[in-house]
Amino acid sequence: MTIQEPKPPRANFVSQDTILDLKGLKCPLPVLKTRKALSRVESGTRMIVQTTDPMAFLDIPHFCNEDGHTLESSEKDGDNGRFTIIKA
């Protein structure tokens, strides 16, 4: 296995959001996996969490509030939820 060092950003570099697809998982897994994923990224990183768990609309905002992250947006489209979180 080879590990590649990250390349330095160029002047026209556009950062990409981290997308976490948690569709099909039930409470409490979306919050637990979101917490774990956020622990692996730098402060200020924007993460998009996709879920189908209806409890996520209560759990993820509560989690962000408790851990100091910013819930930038939450959207619901049928059974699908999409949360944009900025890590504290």
Largest sheet: 4 strands, mixed
Which regions are unreliable across 5 or more consecutive residues at pLDDT < 50? Answer: 1-14
Distance between the termini: 33 Å
Gyration radius over CA: 14 Å
By secondary-structure content and strand pairing, the structural class works out as alpha+beta
State the fourth-level CATH superfamily.
TusA-like domain
Total beta strand runs: 4
The CATH architecture: 2-Layer Sandwich
Q: What's the total helix number?
A: 2
Which range best describes the helical content: under 10%, 10-25%, 25-40%, 40-55%, 55-70% or over 70%? 25-40%
- CATH structural fold name: Translation Initiation Factor IF3
Number of domains: 1
Strand order of the largest sheet: 1-2-4-3
Which term fits the overall shape?
globular
Family: Belongs to the sulfur carrier protein TusA family.
Pfam families: TusA
Organism: Roseibium polysiphoniae
Protein name: Sulfurtransferase TusA family protein
Describe what is shown at a glance.
By secondary structure, the protein is of the alpha+beta class. The chain has helices spanning 29-39, 56-67, and strands at residues 18-22, 46-51, 70-77, 80-86.
